[in-house]
Amino acid sequence: MNGPIVSIARELGFEGNSILEGLVVSIFIAGAFIGSISSGSLVDKLGCRRTVQIDTIPLILGAILSAQAHSLDEILWGRFLVGLGIGVNTVLVPVYISEVAPTKYRGSLGTLCQIGTCLGIIASLFLGIPSESDPHWWRTMFYIASVPGFILSLGMQFSVDSPRWLCKVGRMNDAKAVIRNLWGASEVDKAIKEFQSVSRNDGSDLDSRWLELLEEPHSRVAFIGGTLFLLEQFSGINGVLYFSSLTFQDVGITTGALASLYVGLTNFAGALCASYLIDKQGRQRLLIGSYLGMAVSMFLVVYAICSPLNEQLGHNLSILGTIMYIFSFASGAGPVTALIIPELSSFRTRGKIMGFSFSVHWVCNFLVGLLFLDMVEKFGVAPVYAGFGGVSLLAAIFAYYLIVETKGRSLEEIEMSLNPGVRAKDK
Description:
This protein is mostly helical. It has one domain: Growth Hormone, Chain: A. It contains 18 helices and no strands. Residues 423-427 have low confidence and may be disordered. The chain crosses the membrane at residues 20-40, 76-97, 109-129, 141-160, 256-278, 285-305, 317-341, 353-373, 385-404. Its main location: membrane.
């Protein structure tokens, strides 16, 4: 959105008004916050599959409304609707994958969220190239942005409901059929027994309540989820991405699109690495290693800025630190955070805990965007990057002491280990 905003502002009559330009960009976050909060109740009532299909409505309408906008109000409504859809979508996709994926491959399949995001960013970079010569190309870009919504809605028609949700709403035969098709016939009886055991002992009501997030063990998981996203955002990923184009310019890469492409490819490589390692090394190790790598990378950039090195060496170290940071983030902190929260959550409160956690994500995303440039202007890049490195170290410590390893365990096994009361009742 940062590229087309200049053309949008010029055509819709608010060019040069930085407040309105910022509002067009940031109202997306307001919509995403509301979408995240509302997603939990929708998942409880409708299940992931139908909720995803309904969620494509604001995604499609928002993109088309933005493409046809002829006033500030119209572009704001369009951006808000897209944000609303993205807010719901970011919660639903990790939950859906965690509930339908076989235990053995749940981690690798969960990283597809990050891989898909990277591919989408790279595709958008190529789609944005004509905007440099065509001031009206932003409308075409928004029209193109509506296409994935149609594809997603159609594709989910041929997808399956979560077997856990089917079991909870009493559609036992459908649940068995899904398990048989996805996990194999040998898993049917064991899975159904686990579903029923957990469902019987964590409450029989279909809908959970928000106040349950204040009770153990749900409050602990909600705290972990919210804190992970807070640490993720304040470790500086958006700030580093913002400054990455300037860093690349220092070594002669003057084209913003080319710099963004390097960043996107690094992100993609890190996500592929996470996909390969996550079910081998586990979530906790990947998180710790990722944040330690991010901390080292930030301190390397700080060293390059503050030490009396020759100019070329300093620029090269800054590039190396930036690339290392982005790769480290994409290979752990990025994909694992959204994956491990639904794994740690009980089925009863999974949607609401994810909704709460992602609402923290969007609030922190907004705050970092609001404060980052002011902090850089006031203190300089090096102290801000040092702060990002410090937060990354805190995140590694947090992951070491508070994250429970979930590799190779079914969601029901994880829930029973975190909530001994379930096992006690079952006996």
